[in-house]
Design goal:
This protein is of the alpha+beta class. It has 6 helices and 15 strands. Helix content is 24%, strand content 26%. Helix 5 (254-261) packs across helix 6 (277-286). The two termini are 19 Å apart.
Length: 289
C-alpha cells in the first residue's frame, strides 16, 4: 500500500444516500440475485482469497440488513447483530488488517462501525424505549416518541510534537513491547482541533505547542472515530510525563523513524502498523509535510 495514504480510506463504495429513504428501491436491491452480503464473524471480517469475503443475502437469515452501498453497481449489505461486541479485537483481526488492501479495509470499517452502532443503540436515549432501523440501516427511530438517531463519529487528534528536527513518541502499557506511536486524545466539546492538539500535548507530555498543522485524517472503526493527524512544533523538549496516560515518551530523530518504519534490526522503537494513521504521519513527516 502507498505509505502516504491513510489506512481505512479509499473504499470503492458508492453510498447512495439519496436511495436510503426509498423503500421500493431498497426492496428491489434486496431482491437482486446479484446482491452480496459481507461475511463477518461477530465484528471480524471473514478472510477471502483476495480480501473481504462476500456471500448471498440468504446467509443473513432473519437478521436485519443494512445497505452499505454499491460496488461496481452491485448492492452490498451487512447483517446487523444486536450482540456484537465492539471490545472484541482478536490478534487474528489485526493480522488480517495488515494484509487487506486499504480500499478493502475501508469497506470493512464502514460495516464494522455501522453494525457496532446499531448494537449499542437499540434503545432511545431520550425515553429508553426500543428503536428500530430506518433509512436502509443508516438511522434508527424510536417507536414511542418518534425521534430519529444517526451514527456518530468521535473526533480524535493524533500528533507529533516537533522540536529541532526530532519528534516526540510515546507508548501506553497495552502496546506490544517497544512499540511507540504519536500522542493522541479525544477532542472535547467546545474545542477546536488546534486547541485539542495543544491541550493533549501539554497534558500528556508537558510540552507547549507554538503552532499546529493538519496532515491527514482516517476513520478508525474501534468503534467509530475520526483520527485527525497533525504536527505541532513545541517550545521546548523538556518532558513532564503523565504516567496515567503514558508509560514512556522519548524524542526520536529522522534516522530513528526511518529504521523503525523499515523494521530494521536494532531500531530504537517499533512503529505502528501500516493501517494506522500514525504510520502515515511518520512517513509524511519524513517527506517534509
Amino acid at each position: 500500500m502507498n505509505k502516504a495514504i491513510p489506512g481505512f480510506t479509499g473504499s470503492p463504495l458508492q453510498r447512495i444516500d439519496h436511495e436510503r429513504d426509498n423503500p421500493a428501491n431498497i426492496a428491489s436491491m434486496r431482491a437482486d440475485p446479484a446482491a452480496l452480503l459481507l461475511r463477518l464473524d461477530g465484528l471480524d471480517p471473514v478472510a477471502g482469497e483476495e480480501g473481504l469475503n462476500w456471500g448471498s443475502l440468504a446467509e443473513a437469515g432473519e437478521a436485519e440488513l443494512a445497505l452499505l452501498g454499491l460496488i461496481e453497481g452491485v448492492p452490498r449489505f451487512v447483517a446487523l447483530n444486536a450482540h456484537a461486541d465492539a471490545n472484541a479485537r482478536s490478534p487474528a483481526l489485526f493480522r488480517m488488517l495488515g494484509d487487506l488492501p486499504s480500499s478493502e479495509a475501508a469497506t470493512y470499517a464502514v460495516a464494522r462501525s455501522l453494525v457496532d452502532w446499531h448494537a449499542r443503540h437499540g434503545h432511545c436515549p431520550r425515553c429508553g424505549k426500543a428503536t428500530e432501523p430506518i433509512r436502509a440501516g443508516w438511522a434508527r427511530r424510536c417507536a414511542a416518541d418518534g425521534s430519529e438517531h444517526f451514527p456518530r463519529t468521535d473526533p480524535v487528534v493524533i500528533m507529533l510534537a516537533e522540536h529541532r528536527g526530532r519528534v516526540l513518541v510515546g507508548r501506553q502499557p497495552r502496546f506490544p513491547p517497544n512499540r511507540y506511536s504519536a500522542l493522541a486524545g479525544f477532542v472535547e466539546v467546545g474545542e477546536s482541533i488546534e486547541e485539542a492538539v495543544a491541550r493533549e500535548l501539554f497534558e500528556e507530555a508537558g510540552v507547549r505547542a507554538t503552532s499546529v498543522r493538519y496532515i491527514a485524517s482516517q476513520p478508525w472503526p474501534f468503534p467509530s472515530s475520526l483520527m485527525i493527524a497533525c504536527v505541532a512544533p513545541v517550545e521546548s523538549d523538556a518532558i513532564t510525563l503523565d504516567t496515567k496516560e503514558l508509560e514512556d515518551a522519548m524524542w526520536v530523530g529522522r534516522e530513528d523513524v526511518v529504521q523503525a518504519l523499515a523494521e530494521a534490526e536494532g531500531a530504537r522503537f517499533l512503529a505502528p502498523p501500516a493501517y494506522a494513521i500514525a504510520n502515515t504521519l511518520f512517513h509524511r513527516w519524513l517527506a517534509g509535510d
